[in-house]
Design goal:
- This protein has 167 residues and is an alpha+beta fold.
- The chain has one domain (25-164).
- The protein is built from five helices and seven strands.
- The chain has helices spanning 2-19, 35-41, 44-49, 59-66, 148-164; strands at 68-72, 87-94, 97-100, 103-106, 111-118, 124-129, 135-140.
- It has a five-stranded antiparallel β-sheet.
- A hairpin with a 5-residue loop joins strand 6 (124-129) and strand 7.
- The chain is globular.
- The N and C termini lie far apart (66 Å).
Length: 167
């Protein structure tokens, strides 16, 4: 009897979703990012030198499937590694979007999306920056003792050095 109830509930959910109208969503733009040369440049030693980690084996598929690649301050290939740091810090580079009342609006240039999550308090900060590190959007509260602008700029510069080589 439980299986029949679950099937009926699932069918009702699908019918309900099918009848909903949603705001039109823009498709993700082709930003012309040369993922192949970027990924060829990235290696674990360089990441470690800057204090970053990435799942090197999945960078190409992430770039192709998601339009972004991610660096973090913990090793994402190790289970529960995020628990070994006092806060989780990730930078995504590539496609970015913002949500509006009209739906999803994609940025027309690559962006850096910064995510910090405090493991102790569940506080968080999210910021989106353009390629010149200009702030496009942010939410949440800065919880680190370091100066926000200086710290983020330093981290984004390090990320850019990894992606494109030192300037």
């Amino acid at each position: 009897m439980k299986l029949k109830t679950l099937i009926i509930a699932a069918m009702l959910a699908l019918l309900t979703l099918g009848g909903c109208s949603t705001a039109e969503t823009a498709s993700s733009p082709d930003l012309g990012i040369d993922w192949e040369s970027i990924i060829a440049r990235i290696d674990a030693d360089t990441l470690y030198e800057y204090g970053w980690y990435a799942d090197i084996d999945s960078l190409a598929s992430d770039a192709e499937d998601l339009g972004t690649i991610t660096f973090s301050n913990y090793d994402p290939t190790e289970a529960d590694a995020f628990k070994s740091v006092s806060y989780q810090f990730c930078i995504d580079y590539g496609e970015g979007f913002t949500l509006t009342d009209s739906g999803v609006v994609f940025y027309d240039t690559p962006v850096y999306c910064v995510t910090l999550i405090d493991n102790e308090s569940d506080g968080s900060y999210l910021g989106t920056f353009d390629e010149d590190f200009n702030l496009l959007s942010e939410e949440g509260e800065w919880f680190l003792a370091e100066d926000k602008d200086e710290y983020i700029t330093l981290c984004l510069e390090n990320c850019r050095n990894i992606l494109f080589g030192k300037e």
